[in-house]
Batch of 4 targets.
Target 1
Amino acid sequence: LWVERSLSYAAVIYVSDAYGIGYNEAVLEAALTHNLRFNSSLTVRSYPFSNADSLRQIPRALESFKTWEPTNRTGCSPDGGEFGCSVNNILFVGFDQQAHIFFESATELGVLVEDVPALVLLTDSATSDDLNLLASGSAARRAANGSARILSVGATSDNPRWGQLISDWSQTPASELDAINELLPPEWQLADDLFATTAPIVTSDIARDQAAYAYDAIAALGLLACDIAPAANLPVDFGTLAWSRLTNASGLRFDGLTGTIKFNSFGSRDRSTANFELQNEMLRADGFIPERLGRYDFASDAFAWSDGNTQIYSFGQTGPVLDPVPLPTGSEGDSGWLIKITVTVGVVSVILLLLMARLLYWRVNKYRSRLKQAHARITQLRREKDGSQCTFHFIDADVIRSGRYESLETLPRLQEIRSSHPDWVKTKVLTQESAYGMHGYTRDILAVSHRWETPASPDPKGVQLKATREHLLQHPDIQYVWYDFWCMPQGSDRAPEEKKSFDEMLASVNLLYIGCSVLILQDLSYMSRFWTQFEAWCSMQE
């Protein structure tokens, strides 16, 4: 979008949690890739703020942004009758109330002003409801009018499969609803009006953007099952076989509700098959309403614009957003004099720098490693505080592989393993950064997705343990195994610290099924349970 608008400078003001850091790094990487590919000079500067202290730090980030003057134009402060920043292109990455703080601070500090169009991009973490919190009639509310958002969407109106689903939804016979409810526990029973013409699947953008992806994920799982075992029960190593199919160059590909679905070599959905929309947040009589401007097309690396819609910028202005340009430098005689002075100062500066270089060189090398260590420690503390990492317990894979447990019919819960065989239990920290998109633990960690055969024990006869061992014997690189009964404190007799540990691991369990290798122990009952379906779905995400 920046390139299409001929903008050479952009600022990213982002919350310094895992989401914001990841977003900022993705933008910087995309800018670098674009510059290398097209020999261009798109320049991006980043300004972080703390999630815990956003009320003070967002204004500070904006103050720092105001000092950026990529040319000799005078930044954000009034000068010669001109207002606004020399860079009028901002991506804001923040949540909820933080968008409110951003627009109020940006207008108070003169970053966003009337008559100077600015492109303000928001992420999907800031919604129309957040903008509606801005005070009625305020400069901040007017400034937010025309902000834009690029977000991933699910089904689109031009997809015939989505259109057919919506058309057929309300015609679904009641007998099908009854058949589904027979397979669900009471607390999961579906409402009688699920298939009504006013059902959320028909009327809600949330259903379009989320349920459609879930539908395609289950469809992918079903197609894999049919491919692997077309006329028989699924094998115990279905998860491994499914992963092999997904990562194969000629693997699974089909047309779904969210477009053409195919997967990359990491087993994640190819991003080029996803749908991305550009929306304008427009201030109407009843508040902010997102209006669709166009759809990003990966094949052409450009936006396909909607007919009749024109992009609007800050304060509802029609643009254009201008890049910084140099101010006049005076008369030709003054310019010649200035050049002579500049050359002289430059020569002297080079000599001094050469003399100082040797002195500074050893100091830089001396402190570089210390700075890296300090940065790594700060990053670790931040992630522990904001919940972007979690400590999990695992069973040493060699214990299962070697059969040292064979005096037991099956492995007991974690508390008993710790008591009798503490050396079997290993502890490891998993992070969102390594799990999401990178699948950084697939080589050495195996997470087992399974159903519980009884409420008291998931595997009373050791059948699942045997299947896990067979898989480990075929995959000698795996060092750790995660199986909920063996690796999370179980039972009503848990100590308070064990209950706390259980809750923390449960809240981050998606790290295991997204970032690790996953062994799916599937049978007919597995397919009918929510948690197992959720685990299988997570294992196929990017």
Target 2
Amino acid sequence: MEKPIFPLMQSGTLELSGTALKRLEELKIGGIDVTAMATMDALKMLRLSDVVNGNDQLVAVDELTDLTSAKLSLANEAETEVESLSEHSSGDSDSGYDLGGDGDLEDVSLVSTASVSGGSLSSRSSVTGGSTESLPLAVAQQSQQQLLLQQQQQQRFAVLSYEQVSRVHDVMNETVSIHGRGNFPTLELRLRDLVTLVRAKLEADGVPVKDMRINGGAASYVLALDRCQPQAYNDLDLIFGVDLSSARTFDRIKTAVLDSLLDFLPAGVSRTRMLSCSLKEAYVSKMVKVTEGDRWSLISLGTNHRGKNVELKFVHNMRRQFEFSVDSFQIILDSLVLFYDCASTMPISESFYPTVVAESVYGDFRQAHYHLHHKMIATRNPEEIRGGGLLKYCNLLVKDYRPADPDQIKTFERYMCSRFFIDFPDVGQQRLKLDNYLWNHFVGADEALKYDYLMTLYSVVDESTVCLMGHERRQTLSLIQELAYQAYYADQQQQHHQRQMQQQQQQQHAANHPASYGHAPVYEVRISGCQPTVVYSSSGGYFYAPAAAPPPPPQTSLPPPATTSTPPPATSTTSTTSGSSTTAAVTTASPPSVSAATPCYPCSTPCACSCTWMPCS
């Protein structure tokens, strides 16, 4: 049984406004009818005691049940007509799902209905290219093609688990700071509030929103498994599906976004003197409009390059929406936003959470998720990847991602290098692109990987570039090498600064806590390369050890010089006994003196040692 849109709610009242009810009826995710996923038994679990009142603010569960059963019955009738016309068709289609969505193939139910209701058989035969007897076979083939397309579409989607839905909920409720230039205040907002407000202003201005999605690094962070290391993400990328067939729609989109920012200004800020051009200069860091081939628009909010920027992308059509399988995920937010509208006061729990669907535009969700979990690099049609794909590929390599197909990776590298030099043919453009990429994607802990990244890029360009002349290739390699040297020097400077700061902290700690450094182990180092032997003690510093006796002089005819030696000290003990008392007198000689045969080496400073090996003069 599929998960209902509001699962396991045992009792209570579900308040739906007219707008929310309309969205619930029309809600389709990638062609999947989410209301059909709420089965009859699950909907009957919502036992509502209230009935519909005069202002249409409440809706009974029976009406939702009738709506779902009506959709199921219509789909079953269409399927029955197709089966009655085709004798060769095998297998049943999912009547509760509408996965076609693209409009490329003609609806089978419409074809069969027209043929049964007495349509022109001659026109049908001209379409199939044969006689009227081949009409059922043609319908069956078309039905099989549509079923195959539905199976391929089903591989693109997956329903998120509770842990993943909880992560999406945390991302949507995270407070994001949008810094303004100059004296403009910083905007503190939640992503769920921004999405809801932008959609409301667009629809109020006559621009309907088909769906809302979150993609990029935030989507990969949500879909990463719990036992994996969390995926870091720099930006929050949102996609709004809109109709951009009219050029005026671009202006309406810009106005809606800027008006939304006006509502997020802090209290006490005068909004009457805020113009759209002022808000654009203060809070918009990038605006892109594409009208040739693809039709989409991008508005990037935030001027803090070291923080998380919010990028709003409004898409009519885009042929290439991903670079590699690990960044092809898009999480559809319509059901989650509808949940916020209907049950804003109820927290998300393991027994009560909305059904959220994710899509992989790579084409196979399971395979893309496997690549994300095992850190593998895979793509399709690498010749379609824009010039930045080469930079993203090297970024994955330096983060320990490995090719899923090592045999074809060299071909992919040549495609990506060729596309990079087509999009950025001049060395100045290449430098600008590399500087921007390094500045935006190597932040925080990833900043230490900048040198390794540039050396990896140098290796890939050196081995896989086949479309440049010799001097052009050397110029690009020299540029990458220069940037690598700069990154290495900056890294060394930062490490040196960190070591100095650490030494200062240690010295300050030693000055504030001298007792903690009084129990250091005592050790001695003997330096025996000179005479006398020098001993270094960690507790007393340098001192001299007793010098060894000089070797005997060689035997000659002359007699050796006379030397006098000091006799050993005499110790005498005298005992006197008188009556009951006994007195003992002990006489001890003075300390021994150094013999003349043992020379004394004077010290310049008094000896710090406490030993009595040899007195220092």
Target 3
Amino acid sequence: TIKARTIWCYTTDANQRWEECQALGVILPVCSSGYAVPDESDRKALEWVAIFCWIFGVFWLFILWCMWKRIKLAIAINQVAVTFMGHTPQVCAVPVVQSAGTLLWVGIWFFLASFLLSQVPDDYVPTTYFSTYAEAGGTWETPGSSVGEGLRAMAQRKKRVKTAENQVRDALQQQRLQMLKGSLADRQNYSLFVNRLLAEKFDGYVDAAGGPPGGAQYAVLTCGSTGRLEMAPFSDIDYMIVVSDASDDVREFFLRIARHVRCLFASSDRQCIRMPQDCGPRGYGIPMCEFMVPEQSPELIGTPSQLANLQLNASVVDHIKSAMLDVRFAAGQKALFDSFVRRWFDTAKNNELGLGPGAALALQGLEAYPALELVPDVQLKNFIKAIQLPVTYISLFLQVHDEILPNPIPLHISDRLEWLAARGALPKNMTEALLDAYEFFFALRVQVQNSRRGPSNWLELEVLDRNATEQLMSSARFIDCFNKEAFAFRSWASSNASRRGGPSPLTGECLRELKGVRVSRAPAVVETRPLRANAWTGERYTPVNALVDDRDR
């Protein structure tokens, strides 16, 4: 039986009596013979697809209507392009010429590459096969068999250099660990080690570059805390370069050397946001990103006269002028260093006070520091500067006034206090008390930076025991009294009283503010809060740069 979608009708055609036809006036059932798509879910899906297609079609027509002018413009542009191609058929040769040029370039490159490869000696790389990757590539200690004699020698040199650099890092780390004891001698040893390391690497880079242009002489002078030999765990390196010839090519040469030195010491230190981060991830972890480095301030490369006159230049930042108060010879020609010091002091005499503006910044800088407040969080650096800056100003003033430079020139606070006591400017017991207070706050600073793993100078008073808290209070009163005497000394120095030989306002009266309290140079820090007690560990790496400790061997 054949089932049709409609009825069969009898026709009058002699050739075809029956055919399908429409039943007019007859209500037919819905798909009485079944659906073309049997599954109802598939039929529903097709229905939604059809709806979506209709909606998308309407949306497409709407887009065509919106873009009608742009479509007409595109058609017009193509018509113009076709017209142009018809009038200038020679442009069709452009891709052909380009392809020919590319083939010519590849041919020349292939010839040159073949020529270079032909220069490789036969024994430079082996021609045998290897059973394992270790045999072919080798390890760091043992180069693989696939490495030729030239590459093997290069690998051995890299290994020696890497071993030597790791030894330097180990020695530097040991000096840092020793510095955590907080003693003056340990801190000076660390600073001296950094000075010697800077001198060695700087001279090495200069020699490797073939020496300065024209045989110019140079001297590297460390400044600031590096020159004073009182670097803290996170102190940066300040230095400048004295040259006998300040021509452009000499300056450019030493700027390149300064960049190599910065990359070696500071590496990719995150604090150096003003410097280009193009050195890679490894280094000694000692920042070189402040103003007092030649790469940041090119004026720090110059002749002795040029550098001495920076203290008179109003456009030079005060940080540079004050850092130049503490200069130490590190590398190069000692005669250039001596020439700079003499010219600096000569320049310092060129005003009515008998002391140049560069030296006067030592005391002016103290006025910019906040008051010495004993709040729950103490800013340790304020108390350190409150001793360092007045002592620097007083010693420099008296040296210029005497017109006789001490040999050697005192730089560290202990050396300057000893010189002031020997000259009779301060009583001996006063200089000892100042040094005790200075070392007290500096030792706290070292411990805080080691604990917080960062260049912090804030101390929470509650971590101190009762004895250390009492010493801090007495030292604060003592330092405040000394600051008043220092400002009185400046007024006395600028008046005729100093010239007539009147009595100096520097006395030992401030010792009474200590009220008999003996200040320890190595205060004990005791953290009692449970969440922070584990942070105060003495024997651990000072994380100046975390990448230094995570080096691979």
Target 4
Amino acid sequence: SHPGCVRLLTCTGASACAMSHANGGAWQQSGSGDGAATNAAEMRAACAERTAQYMAAPGPSNGANGRPGKGIGGLAAASNGMISGEQRPPLITVSSLAVGEVVDVFHRYAQDPNGYFMVQHSTSGFLHPSIGWTDGWTTAKVSEPWDARNFQPSDYKTWVQIQWLHPVWYNRRGHRLDVNNPNMVTQRVLPEQIRQRRAPSEAQQQPRLTLFHIRWGGEQPVNPVTEGAGGWGQIGATPSDNYINGLEDHIFRALGPTYEIISAFIQGSEELPKINAPLLRHLMKGQHVGALYFLWPISYQDGHAFPAYVDRAKLWELMVQMEGTGIHTRFPHQSHLYRIFASKEWTAQMCLHPLLRVPLTTMVARQALALDPAKAAANAIDALGNLSKTRAAWNGSMGIAENRSGAPIMKGVAKLGWSWEAMDVRAWKNKAELTDALENLGEQPGSFVDYVFVQEWVDFDVEMRHFIVEPDLTKPQTLKPKKIIYTVFKSREGGSFRNFDRYDREACLANCFKNDDDALADAERQAQEVISRWMEWLQAQSHELPVVTRFDIMAKRSGPGKAFIMTGELTELGGCFLGWPEGPRTVFSAMVRSFFRDPIKTSA
């Protein structure tokens, strides 16, 4: 239910290099001979060439001398989720550099597919969770003469070649970089990331912003799922390196080298409580601070067989501790609001509200499934029937005309909260199928599920996905969508919803609404009314409205010029962009603005 972005690729070797970055570069530790170095060199050289060709806007760096290590940089920046056509690149302030000159260099983790980052002590790198500075200023030594007059962004050989001087580097898998080998710390970087030490610069100033990124560091990387109509697009799934690289590139283009990022790489839920929020807050030097959680909380023991899936309780404990320390959650939402989105409990709580148009929903307790799933299914169907009668009675007492008479509900869906990518949704059309769905959903391996939603079936022709960005109830224009994507599920596997087609409005009109423009306009008008009401409801849930929300509205043509709609989903920040080309730029820009929403607290 949550597919998400963008970088135009010119690197045909992207997949291999992306996997290198996702694996944290552990492969390079497996051999120290010339063969291993040569293979890394060949991959780096090929990708660096393509990276340089890509340079519509400068950004990535790359390596030198044909050796693995820090020098392999640049590919991830070019191929994993980065966005072209962003803000102007930061200024180049250097005109020439001499061999041996010590300079300040802004390190960017996204530029190194081997994934090395700076730590102050070895234990921060080889004990998990691994925590260190992934973006920020450090020092390096120029290793070949450089003159700005020869610089061409499209030719990486004209970039500045440096050797990193920071003494301790680790990757997410706990492997240490051999800094005693010059080839391992040699890299080419863009001059915009370099400042000479003899003049005041951003390197000596307090960062405007410190971000703490909590991300996956397990052996199995997060699959970005970029392919297909139901895929996340070029940006990849939110816990993937693609997505994080894209966001970090946007931050650099928006702010220049005026921020720092501290990252924690976790291998499982048990590592989350080991992150010390008060100590971390002490390390964050920025004028503004924030935390971003690139993980998927679930109601299972660790993993549920997928990377980046973590125990919701342990993630929430960390989020609350961080927020209590003054480290604001900037992605996806503050803990209590994120819980509202992820739990999906709003479906049962609001299904009788006539103005919000939610399908009738009841919650079946886990204990009922354990004792007698067939009885639980029968009781759930009865409960939906009672809710149907209640809805009809309430609507009638309020004078709301409906063509639903309070009839029994004999088909629907069963689904879970705390679930991602439409993994836990099952259709049913009788008691036996609902019994199977309840058992299947509630008794999965490692399950901590405490309830299963049972919901009435809604017939619809199309699902309209509305992206609302930076809403303000005092400015009605901001409640209108920045984009609407029209989708239709096209396959079911074992009762589960899988692939879908997506359309623009014109194709939706032809394929879904029989070219009845008035009916589609009626659906869009009703959807806007419902979305405005949902935003008003969200104001009660949080004093700050979410930066981005995607509202999925189901629509059916009910007759000439007429349509019927229902609310399908409220999707949190981080939901799939569904092929919206401008989506990453639009959403990331809003996120960056939100980083500066609150002033930093200067006193204890």
